Amino acid sequence: MIVLVLNKGLSFIPATKLDLVETILELKMFVRNVMLKTVFMDEHSASNDGNVFKKPSTFIPDNSPAMEAFINLSEDDLRKDFSGGSKSIFFNLSCKEYEALNSLVRDEHLIIRLADKGIGIVVLDKQVYMERMYDMLRDRKVYAVLQKYQENGIIDRLNFYLYDMLMTDLIDYSLYTYFCVEHPTIPVIYGLPKIVGVAMGTACANTYANLVLANWEKEIVFNNDSFKENITFYKHFVDDDDDDDDTENEKTAKTFIMESFPNRNCFVFVQPTTSELIANCSMLENTSLNAKFFEQSEAFCQHIYNKSKVKCLCGEEVRNGEVLAGFIHLYVNYINSGNIPLYKDVVQTLSATVNAEMIEKAFKNYKQQMKAQSNFVTETEQELEEIHKQNMDSAVAAFRKGCFRDNGDAENKLKHAINECYQECRKRNEEQSCKLCEFLLKSLFKDIDQQFRSKYCAKQDGYQLYLQHRDRAIQNYNETTGLGVMKQKSLDSQMEKENDREGCILKEAVQMNENAKDKAITNFVNGMKMIQIPTDTVEMLDDAYQEHKEKSFEIFRTQCSNYQRKENKEAIKREIHQYYEDLQIRNKQESDERCEEACRMFFMEIEDKFQSKSYYVPGGYKAYRQDYNTATVKYKQTPMLGISKQRVLELQIEKERKRELQIYQEEENEKALFNSKELYRTKMCNVRLPCGTAERLKDIHNKYKKEAIECCRSVCFLDEEKSVECRLRVMCIFASFRISI
What is the C-alpha to C-alpha distance for residues 586 and 591, in angstroms, rounded to an integer? Predict the structure, then answer.
């Protein structure tokens, strides 16, 4: 039953339940085909021009009213049939055949393939089939494993060749779009088993001459009218045994031929087949021919192969029959033209003709071999040179094998022509390699060209992004094989352009960094200028510095390029810090000036009174302390004095302490002097007068003076000058006392 199912063929479709959507879709496709033939008729078929390489048309013509009515009626009928429930289906397989078909489908160990040439169906073991397929794929002489980048490189080369053919008008645009596939699908390999039959033999030879004559002999003898008469003459007198009817000339010729060919080996052949079939001898099978005829033919051929001598001209071996036939043809032409057929001239002419033909043939063979072996560009000059040397050696060997009496001139001429062709091949190889490299470079650097201004020059990471894309493109270019000898030169040329582009992008990145740096520094300076100088504390200036520094760094980070970001940030940091240090100095100077001015203003009255010794009176120290406290309070209450406020106040306080001590000492000294004077006055007033002599009074005076001085010295703030002052005052009192006496 399985055999019966397989006999139906792989194109057989079992009957299934129809689908309404698929049926209507097939109806639409049928109507489209009908309308295409109706609208275009002969023009549609004529427009193809026999070009099968064309993408299928998607044109849908407008339907005629009659066709629209047909579609509507057909769709209504189909919907009625499907809406009325399932109809009875005609099954084209029996139940057993369905079972057999399902068993084949479910059997995972079998694989069914159409035989090669479509002459049958073959059922194979799937494992054996897969092993055979893998064996073929493992043959590295035929198949190779391709990486992804190699696949892209092959596609790019094919697209390049197609584009080059389009530009040179070898193909039109429709063929270019047909073959240039943007997203090619991955092909699937499968094997077709071959059914081997029994050979039935070969056809018989066309004529008896084919068994003996070479190709050149057949062409010269049977296709040249100038030889037919001589051949007829030869056949007539050699093969005819009846000498009675021969004329005198015929007998002479016959005798001449027999003397020229004394050793005659005659072979008699039986008739190959019957007289009725002899006309179609070449179309008969070998089994239909006489077996004895084959034996005689084989014996004749072996005799020719073994006994025939090498043909020579002027003692030189003739390498093939064509040279000999050419010699005969030239000799006959000399005779027919009326010239004297000098053997040497004929040989020279034949040599020139044969060598020219061999040069042309060898050169043509060289060009064909070079074209076949260097179809794609070579990777190196050495590779092309090796192909050239190999093909040149082959061409020279072929020339030497077929040349005739060459003294080296013809071979040199051939080598010269080959070298010129090789130079053209080199030039063409370089041009093709250059075109291929330029096409690949253009495709690899296409995105870089498009994004040059919009992406690389306008973004922060533009320079780094450009370097990444450029390095990736160069890596893909270097990994691509089959680009030829101009691969490195084309890359060097492209790198010169890229160096200019890199310089432009780098210049833009540097300018972006400069602008961002200027904005950051300007923002920092403007922010610091908003602070009132001098500040009350160092922390206020430091906090403002940290705040505006972070803002400036943020501005730089959002607007700068990633190129040398760290170096530029350090430069901004140095400039900002230098500005901050200068601002600190200015803040201190401003604060010092204001504080000193405030001190001078508030302590000016104290200074004036001190200089005028207004505090050197009783109660002066207390007045000084009141003035000092008042000036200190006013100074502390004065705003905008800055960071030096406390320091300047401390310096002023230190100065006032010395002044306070001096005022205090002066007040104490005045008290001591007053007390000493009063002591002296009191004691002198207690002296009874008259006291006698002046000497007595003087002694009393010295005594009390000494006591007054000792009383003055008992105060710690008195110095020698004050002590002298005390003596003077006592003496003044004594003088006044004496005068009063």
Answer: 8
Which residues partner with 577 through β-bridges?
A: none
CB of 27 within 8 A of CB of 75?
A: yes
Are 317 and 310 in contact by the 8 Å Cβ rule? The answer is yes
What pLDDT does 239 receive? Answer: 43
Three-state SS for 266? coil
Nearest to 210 by CA among 693, 202, 124, 426: 202
Q: Residue 224: what pLDDT?
A: 44
- Token pair for residue 530? 């908003």
The pLDDT tens digits for 404-418 are 777 888 888 888 888
Please spell the DSSP secondary structure of 595-641, one letter per residue: HHHHHHHHSHHHHHHHHTTTTSSTTHHHHHHHHHHHHHHHHHH----
pLDDT at 315: 57
The pLDDT, as a whole number, for residue 45 is 46
Q: Which residues pair with 313 in a beta bridge?
A: 316
Place of tokens 């061409």: 395
CA-to-CA dists, residue 659 to 301, 610, 616, 640, 646, angstroms: 153, 8, 11, 28, 20
Q: Which structure tokens are listed for 705?
A: 């003076």
Distance, C-alpha 528 to centroid of its chain: 49
Helix (H) or strand (E) holding 586: helix 565-602
> Which regions of the chain are under pLDDT 50?
44-47, 197-241
Contact 642, 535 (CB under 8 A): yes
| Rounded to 5°, angle at Cα 32 from 29 and 35 | 155
Are 352 and 453 in contact by the 8 Å Cβ rule? The answer is no
- CB 421 within 8 Å of CB 363: yes
Is residue 541 within 8 A of residue 585, CB to CB? The reply is: no
Are the C-beta atoms of 462 and 470 separated by less than 8 Å? no
640: nearest Cα among 594, 678, 672: 594
Measured between its terminal Cα atoms, the distance across the chain in Å is 181
Could you say which DSSP state residue 486 is in?
A: T
Report pTM: 0.43
Contacts 24+ apart (CB under 8 A), 732-739: 733/677, 733/680, 733/681, 733/684, 734/684, 734/701, 734/705, 737/684, 738/697
What's the Cα-to-Cα distance from 114 to each of 134, 190, 193, 444, rounded to whole Å? Answer: 19, 11, 7, 44
What sign results for the dihedral spanned by CA atoms 157, 162, 165, 166? negative
Number of Cβ within a 10 Å radius of residue 537: 12
Residue 494's Cβ-count burial label (10 Å; 0-12, 13-18, 19+) is buried
Q: What SS3 class is residue 592?
A: helix
Domain ranges of the chain: 2-147, 603-740
Residue whose structure tokens are 């071996």: 317
Give CA–CA dist 568/571, Å, rounded.
5
Backbone torsions φ then ψ of 457, nearest 5 degrees: -90, -15
Question: Residues 664, 621: contact at Cβ < 8 Å?
Answer: yes
Taking each helix axis from N to C end, the angle separating 604-611 and 565-602, rounded to the nearest 10 degrees, works out to 50
Q: Coil, strand, or helix at residue 224?
A: coil
Place of tokens 């990471």: 461
Backbone angles phi, psi at 494, to 5 degrees: -65, -35
Cα–Cα distance measured from residue 394 to residue 400, given in angstroms and rounded to the nearest whole number: 10
- Residue pair 98/14 in contact by the 8 Å Cβ criterion: yes
Q: Tell me, what's the pLDDT at 229?
A: 40
Q: Minimal CA–CA distance to 658: which of 648, 666, 669? A: 666
Q: Which two tokens stand for residue 139?
A: 């043959």
> How many helices and strands (H and E) does the chain possess?
26, 4
State residue 227's pLDDT score: 39
Report the alpha-carbon angle 645-648-649, nearest 5. Answer: 80
Q: Which residues pair with 114 in a beta bridge?
A: 121
CB atoms within 10 A of CB 46: 10
How far is Cα of residue 8 from the mean position of the Cα atoms in its chain?
Answer: 55
Residue entry with tokens 């922390």: 539
What is the pairing mode between strands 312-313 and 121-125?
unpaired
- pLDDT of 735 reads 60
| Residue type at 438 in one-letter notation | E
